[in-house]
Design brief:
The protein has two domains: about 1-215, Cation efflux protein transmembrane domain (Alpha-lytic protease prodomain-like, Up-down Bundle), CATH 1.20.1510.10; about 220-295, Cation efflux protein, cytoplasmic domain (Alpha-Beta Plaits, 2-Layer Sandwich), CATH 3.30.70.1350. About 70% of the residues lie in helices and about 10% in strands. The protein has nine helices and three strands. The chain has helices at about 1-30, 30-60, 75-100, 110-140, 145-150, 155-185, 185-215, 220-235, 270-285, and strands spanning about 240-250, 255-260, 290-295. A three-stranded mixed sheet has the order 1-2-3. The longest helix is centred in the N-terminal third of the chain and has 30 residues, at about 75-100. Keywords: Membrane, Transmembrane, Transmembrane helix, Transport. It is a multi-pass membrane protein. This is Cation diffusion facilitator family transporter.
Length: about 300
């Protein structure tokens, strides 16, 4: 979590510094694509704040109304972030671009736009480098897509997607804005805004898909499940593990339920002792499993 906070803070600072300068440059030079980039950076800044809020809320201690804690707050706010990227980032950028293509306006001297874009590329690129570096620490040898699919911490890959989309958007804007000015085709500036919007919509769909899956309750990996089954069945009191259910309450907290068929000759006290043994071994070998519920069949 500390590593994720580092990438979130770096992205927050970068986007906060960039957003204002993009709006000023876009308004001064009459560039739709720069205004879209300003919207993008503003949305990203808001997203970092929401992620930090979600991380803070997820650490709240369990209480009477939430006995398993507030870990899923992180998943909820990650889903909110994906919706904001779609609605405020993608949709507004596409609208701004289409409007500028229908009613094109000739761009004034784009010098300040280029200065802002180059500085933005440096800041966003630095933030992306930090985010990728921190995410690589959590991949454990998996390829990128598998690491994202199997990750239970959306804050680890969400910043990578946001910063990656930001860098891609900046490159698109730089190329098409330059062509728009040199060829005197103002519609190209609007087209750049539309492409930036489409990039954000694509990213929002991926993030929404992963955040929704976590919010709905993803379980432990099949290989981990098999190890726990073998561990339970190695106890002399266990006849067979009938079923195993699990869900991630947060990236660092798993709720596990085992339905076990114990030996018929055992009395209540012996079964209770066996349950305590199995629970202790599971929690020792799998630290993320905070709650172990064992139901005799």
């Amino acid at each position: 979590m500390a590593n994720n906070r580092k990438s979130i803070y770096s992205a927050l600072v970068a986007n906060l510094l960039i957003a204002l300068t993009k709006f000023i440059a876009g308004g001064f030079t009459n560039s739709a694509s720069m205004i879209s980039e300003g919207i993008h950076s503003t949305v990203d800044t808001t997203n970092q704040l929401l992620l930090l809020y979600g991380l803070k809320r997820s650490k709240k201690a369990p209480d009477e109304s939430h006995p398993f804690g507030y870990g899923k707050e992180l998943y909820f706010w990650s889903f909110v972030v994906s919706i904001l990227i779609f609605a405020l980032g993608g949709a507004l950028s596409i609208y701004q671009g289409i409007k500028h293509m229908i009613e094109p306006e000739v761009m004034r001297d784009p010098l300040w736009n280029y200065i802002v874009l180059i500085l933005s590329l440096i800041f966003e690129g630095s933030s992306l480098f930090i985010a990728v570096k921190e995410f690589n620490k959590t991949r454990q040898g998996l390829n990128w897509w598998d690491a994202i699919i199997k990750s239970k911490d959306p804050s680890s890959f969400l910043v990578v997607f946001e910063d990656g989309a930001a860098v891609a958007g900046l490159l698109v804007v730089m190329i098409l804005m330059g062509m728009s000015h040199s060829l005197q085709i103002p519609e190209l500036d609007g087209l750049a805004s539309v492409i930036v919007g489409l990039i954000l919509v694509f990213v929002s769909f991926i993030l929404a898909r992963e955040s929704r899956s976590l919010l709905m309750g993803e379980g432990i990996a099949p290989e981990t499940k098999q190890k726990i089954v073998e561990l339970a069945e190695s106890d002399p009191a266990v006849l067979k593990t009938k079923n195993i259910l699990s869900t991630y309450q947060s990236p660092e907290e798993v709720v596990l339920m085992l339905i076990i068929d114990f030996e018929d000759h055992l009395d209540t006290e012996e079964i209770t002792d066996a349950i305590q043994r199995i629970r202790a071994v599971i929690k020792q070998l799998f630290p993320l499993v905070r709650f172990v519920i064992i139901q005799p069949e």
